[in-house]
């Protein structure tokens, strides 16, 4: 497999549900997934991420348009062929508690084993390699029921790895995990894509980590459908704000790469500090206390505004009404400010 080789391509794809409760979730989706790339699919609740992943995995048919895997319609592959090409990791807690970690991952070899599913030496090596790749080899003999959520998720990823598929799809694999496990899993997926030349696509609500680790983003919204691009191209073209289009009070913070409530401070204060970290956290605290921060020089149209000079976290000078008060902490500062208002 060569870096950049197209594995999956969708053209004018419509996804959704046919039958009694028929519903088109999206139409006109155009995308490609290539070897060696880790892609994160972001979108608000109900925007259609799982529907798209299920369609890509052929767990539900497209409503119209074209969806190809290595240039051939996904529907033209039989289920066994597909399971050699697509590894799917779902979040729902499957009933696997009675299986050992080793046995569960071994099930991922089924597309390669014969009728009786006996593991060859090569299969056993592949199981051990996959468990090692996700850092779970030491738990090979544990039962699934004995694992934490994060560990279980790593084992499910090992099961997808052992299938040796060029395409791995994961639906919110980091849901319910602590920040360390989330970072571990996303770093692992990024490494797998890069070193094993796989295309890895995961849906997630973990925007912060996605912006750090994803080579590409797929942004899914009702208004714009699916916007695909290199992570930094989308961020710097201000496309992140489109994710929550009906929430004008929530803004993407370009500087720090996360979403936060828009600042609507009613009180004004001039903030002076030479340190970027101090500026960020002082502004954070002031915004929460209903202050809108102006930079020095910005206050020409306002007169007599308080000025805050932050030299260090324990040296905060507040100049107001011709007096200067030195505060030794933010707690102290907000006590002084609350007494003034
Ligand atoms: N079986 C179904 N039949 C009809 N509509 C469905 C079905 N499953 C989901 N939907 C609808 O399709 C839309 C997209 O749902 P989907 O689960 O794909 O969103 P999502 O982006 O994965 O959401 P979340 O972030 O909450 O997991 C929703 O409006 C949902 O109500």
Automatic annotation (TrEMBL):
Keywords, in A-Z order: ATP-binding, Nucleotide-binding, Transport
Protein name: ABC transporter ATP-binding protein
InterPro entries membership: AAA+_ATPase, ABC_transporter-like_ATP-bd, Metal_Ion_Import_ABC, P-loop_NTPase
SUPFAM superfamilies attached to this UniProt entry: P-loop containing nucleoside triphosphate hydrolases (SSF52540)
Record keyword ATP-binding present: yes
Source taxon at top rank: Bacteria
Gene Ontology terms for molecular function: ATP binding
CDD domains: ABC_Iron-Siderophores_B12_Hemin (cd03214)
Domain ABC transporter: 8-247
């Amino acid at each position: 497999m060569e870096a950049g080789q197209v594995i999956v391509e969708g053209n004018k794809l419509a996804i959704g549900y046919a039958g009694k409760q028929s519903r088109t979730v999206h139409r006109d989706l155009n995308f490609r997934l290539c070897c060696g790339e880790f892609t994160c699919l972001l979108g608000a609740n109900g925007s259609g991420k799982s529907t798209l992943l299920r369609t890509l995995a052929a767990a539900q048919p497209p409503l119209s348009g074209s969806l190809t895997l290595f240039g051939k319609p996904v529907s033209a592959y039989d289920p066994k062929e597909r399971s050699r090409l697509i590894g799917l990791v779902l979040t729902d807690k499957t009933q696997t508690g009675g299986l050992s970690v080793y046995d569960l991952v071994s099930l991922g070899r089924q597309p390669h084993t014969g009728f009786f599913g006996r593991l060859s030496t090569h299969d056993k090596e592949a199981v051990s390699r996959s468990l090692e790749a996700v850092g779970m080899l030491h738990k090979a003999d544990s039962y699934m029921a004995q694992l934490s959520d994060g560990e279980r998720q790593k084992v499910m990823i090992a099961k997808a790895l052992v299938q040796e598929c060029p395409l791995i799809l994961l639906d919110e694999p980091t849901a319910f995990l602590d920040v360390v496990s989330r970072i571990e899993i996303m770093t692992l997926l990024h490494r797998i894509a890069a070193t094993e030349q796989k295309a890895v696509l995961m849906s997630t609500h973990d925007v912060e980590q996605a912006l750090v680790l994803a080579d590409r983003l797929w942004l899914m919204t009702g208004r714009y459908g699916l916007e695909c691009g290199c992570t930094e191209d989308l961020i710097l073209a201000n496309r992140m704000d489109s994710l929550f289009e009906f929430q004008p009070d929530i803004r993407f913070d370009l500087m720090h790469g996360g979403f936060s409530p828009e600042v609507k401070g009613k009180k004004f204060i001039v903030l002076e500090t030479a340190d970027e970290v101090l500026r960020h956290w002082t502004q954070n605290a002031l915004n929460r206390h209903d202050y809108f921060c102006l930079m020095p020089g910005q206050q020409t149209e306002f007169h007599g505004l308080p000025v805050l000079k932050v030299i260090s976290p324990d040296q905060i000078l507040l100049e107001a009404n011709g007096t200067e008060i030195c505060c030794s902490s933010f707690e102290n500062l907000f006590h002084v400010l609350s007494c003034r208002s």
